[in-house]
Design a protein that fits this description.
Length: 487
């Protein structure tokens, strides 16, 4: 067999990824309105639901919180890790690692506090100007998500979140506002983070209060239809306002294996895969795939569309496909299959894989499989915008943190990315999730750490917020410096 050497392209975008509501803090500073994320309380491990996360919030809980009756609760997404006041220090650390790109999200209620205003909040816009200027100082490209698991709470209370078609116009107005403001500073954009999330947590993904709707699946898919239209119109606006920009979609990629070669298992895996790729089929290919007709019929889902919607979806498809990848899942038709937990969704245990502290199965080869499958299907550039290991970290007496387990996880995934590039996949870049420890999206805890940079803060918000470099910090610096050659 001949020898083949896979290499990362010269201009590969190495970096890290974050979200405003897990990082910024300052939830009521400088005119920011409340966001859906500000209503999510920290729930200790023993009180979480069977899926291990605590995401959905009811209308009664929101009323209770707003009335001040929930004073015993902690809302970690309100304080984050105080990036709002420490962004210069944090960006300097990213620059020290050699980041080429930094993925962050804009907090929509910082710009439009209630969501339906005509005029934006200048103080909110000014904050991101400062962040983008700081990144520019170090030649770090911002990759900006318009909506990352949050929206103005006002749009939830007044309109019912994304179930309401009016929200499309509010979102497009917000998108156009930030495109115009940052057109000389931001060249890479994403519309909705993990757009498929809306079907797992309608509140997180779409501001939908499930206690207010009759058919939750119907509401979620109607909400996502509105997001598809909003995303397409944002693509249109981005191309008009910033002609040299690239704008992509973002999927929580859930690669599914059949448990056995029993055709029933294989068929089940195929169906689950289709349900995952439905979202990118619409955003990349520009149309609802035919396989969804049956799914909608079997689940009593009827999507209300306006006459021009399909044309909008067809005309304004994304420039690239970005996705998160943490693990793979297994589909089984057996009733007694052993379950494991995971990102958004659990599944059947894969006996060939190891698991993280949180029970997520670690599968680097699965990333190569996913990259090949996505590229075969779409033939557009791909961008891995989330991948990482949430783990408990221990600070030694001298302040060092030996996180070999994290280095090991990332090394194995980067090796498989390189193999996929060798397979012919066009990969733009890689932003690891949470380059600095931040508040967990699914559990609002701080002890589930992803960062190269340790932040001294516990699940209850206590700590000095001091930043410390972990062993992985120096390792990733070397990876970037050698463009993925020294792992």
């Amino acid at each position: 067999m001949g020898h083949f050497e896979a290499k990362f392209p010269e201009n590969f975008l190495w970096g890290g990824a974050t979200a405003a509501n897990q990082l910024e803090g300052a939830f009521d500073a400088d005119g920011k309105g409340l966001s859906t994320a500000d209503m999510v309380a920290y729930v200790p491990k023993e009180k979480r639901g069977k899926n291990g996360h605590s995401l959905d919030v009811t209308s009664a809980e929101i009323e209770e919180i707003l009335s001040g009756a929930a004073s015993d609760k902690i809302f970690p997404k309100r304080f984050g890790i105080d990036f709002y006041h420490r962004y210069k220090e944090d960006i300097a650390l990213f620059a020290e690692m050699g980041f080429k790109v930094f993925r962050l999200s804009i907090s929509w209620p910082r710009i439009f506090p209630n969501g339906d205003e005509t005029e934006p909040n200048e103080a909110g816009l000014a904050f991101y100007d400062k962040v983008f200027d700081e990144l520019a100082k170090y030649n770090i490209e911002p990759l900006v998500t318009l909506s990352h698991y949050e929206m103005p709470l006002g749009l939830v209370q007044k309109y019912g979140g994304w179930t309401n078609r009016k929200v499309i116009d509010f979102f497009v107005h917000y998108a156009e506002t930030v495109f115009k403001r940052y057109k000389n500073k931001v060249k890479y954009w994403l519309t909705f983070n993990e757009i498929n999330m809306i079907t797992f947590s309608p509140y997180t993904g779409g501001g939908i209060l499930t206690d207010r709707v009759e058919n939750v699946k119907q509401a979620a898919f109607q909400g996502v239809h509105h997001q598809f239209v909003a995303s397409a119109l944002a693509v249109k606006a981005c191309h008009e306002i910033i002609p040299d920009a690239k704008i992509g979609c973002m999927l929580a990629r859930l690669e599914v294996y059949p448990e056995t070669c029993n055709p029933d298992d294989v068929l089940k895996a195929l169906k689950e895969d289709q349900l995952n790729l439905f979202f990118t089929d619409v955003q990349v290919r520009g149309a609802y795939p035919s396989y969804m007709k049956r799914y909608f019929a079997e689940n009593n889902i009827h999507i209300e569309k306006l006459p021009g919607d399909d044309a909008i979806l067809k005309q304004y498809t994304v420039d690239f496909l970005s996705f998160s990848y943490y693990m793979t899942l297994v589909a089984s038709t057996k009733d007694d299959a052993e379950e494991v937990s995971g990102n958004l969704i659990g599944g059947v245990k894969n006996p060939y894989l190891e698991s993280s502290d949180w029970g997520w199965q670690i599968d680097p080869v699965g990333l190569r499989i996913t990259l090949n499958k996505l590229y075969d299907r779409y033939q557009v550039p791909l961008f891995i915008v989330e991948n990482g290991l949430g783990a408990y970290d221990k600070v030694e007496e001298d302040g060092s943190i030996h996180d070999d387990y994290r280095i090991d996880y990332l090394r194995k995934h980067i090796e498989q990315m390189k193999e996929a590039i060798g397979d012919g996949v066009e990969l733009m870049g890689y932003t690891t999730w949470g380059p600095i420890d931040l508040v967990s999206a699914s559990t609002s805890e701080m002890s589930k750490r992803y960062g190269f940079i340790y932040v001294d803060q516990d699940d209850f918000g206590n700590g000095t917020l001091k930043r410390l470099r972990k062993d992985s910090f120096y390792w990733y610096k070397k990876v970037i410096e050698t463009n993925g050659e020294e792992l």
